[in-house]
Amino acid sequence: MRDFRVLLINCNTMLDTLITAGIGILSSCLQQNGIEVRLFDTTFYRTAERTGDEARAYALQVKKTDFKDLGIVPEERDVIDGFLDAVDQFRPDLIGLSCIEVTFPLGMRLLDAVRHAGIPTIVGGPYATFAPDIVIRRPGVDMVCVGEGEGALVDLCKRLADGGDVTAIPNVWVKRDGKIFKNAVRPAVDLDTLPQQNWDVYDKRRFWKPMGGRIAVTGTFEMNRGCPYTCSFCINSGFDAIYGAAGGYYREKSIDRLIDEMAAKKERYDLAYVYLVAESFLTTPIKRIERFGRLYREKMGLPFWVEVRPESVTKEKVAILTEIGCEGISVGVESGNLWLRKNVLGRNIVDKTIIRAFELLHETKIRISANNMIGFPHETRAMIFDTIELNRILQPHGVMVSFFSPYKGCTLRRTCEEAGFIAPDGIAGDYRLGPAMDMPQLRARDLAGIHRAFPLYVKFPREEWDEIRRCEADTDEGNRLFAAYADRYVRQFMS
Fold first, then answer.
1. CA 203, CA 336: separation in Å to the nearest integer?
2. Which DSSP symbol is given to 20?
3. Fold of 5-182
4. What is the pLDDT of residue 374?
5. What are phi and psi of 174, to 5 degrees?
6. Which residues touch 82 (CB under 8 Å, ≥6 apart)?
7. CA 443, 386, 493, 60: dihedral to nearest 10 degrees?
């Protein structure tokens, strides 16, 4: 196995520098088995007109930051040329592409570029998991990993190295001689059995992440995998469906193992900030939160950011977060329309519960963001204004607004396909950059206008709403007015 080489591709959106825990864990699993690993990362290539952070800063959701201050700019060299050089220099025995739906087209360009080399390829990640029939048909794809890849990728490498049969590996689909071998999903891995992440495969620039208006060396740590909830707009509903017969998908890592890894990484990489990967950080027993707080205070002591659901926010848990230096918290609001939340999104929660969560958090110095989403099927302009009205009550420090993108795996994807809003093989775009759908009751151009004006409606007096509505128009007048309001918004609410 020491002569077996794997080139992993992190097919990432441009300058989204937050480290992904998955690549680090996969790399460690391979190296643990004597397999040489190298990473080709698309992050620092110019693969888009603007970054997600730039789009969010333009829409007044985050403070503007500039990687140029650190000497970090996208490479002008074509990403395909860079990839071909990496393959030629490393000469891998297997190429493993990790991508999401947004980056799948770029990933296919990369794999198509090396078809002539005859190197086996495997594609993994959420899109491969939920659209394996689409992915396996692509000429540059030999195999697809459905579900988790830690065990599957190691098993595949061992079979390839030994010249064994690769057509019967759990979690792996194989295309061979005109046939497709579809194997069942193995049970979800016990997170405590996985090795610590290997961050040495990453470019040092990947550690610089904008957080709260500053760019800091940030570490990403997996606290759990999956989510105890099954919201229809989230792909975790898809993971639950796939793993239901295999024992379920949601798991938690033990606090002691989590803190041990965090402390080791803090020391080695001089971390200044921490992002904890947990779909709903506080949806766990209070004893677990208490132990995390005690050990984190002893061994870490760094500012950190988490995501929570409103119904998990309690006075006791908020007190712990405050004591141990939680700097930022994002609360999932999604929609302010009760009917939409309950009947479309699968979130049976009343406004009172959401409001109470924000009241508790406002008693602290934690920076609070409200995560909102617009552009759902069946949603109307009036429903979006229900969300705006709720945000006016909540008064978060940061007003985050995403476009709903019906990614493969979420329950609402089928609804959108059946309504003709997106084709079965259509690629849903980046939720930060623009609408994924053009619907009769909510046209894409109108949705884009509401999106950029959303924080203005939340923060400025109702008497100005007629003027703010003019900011929605993508015209010379509308753009000039929006620029003036944006300047005022930044000075008043983001200084």
1. 41
2. P
3. Rossmann fold (3.40.50)
4. 98
5. -130, 135
6. 40, 45, 75
7. -20
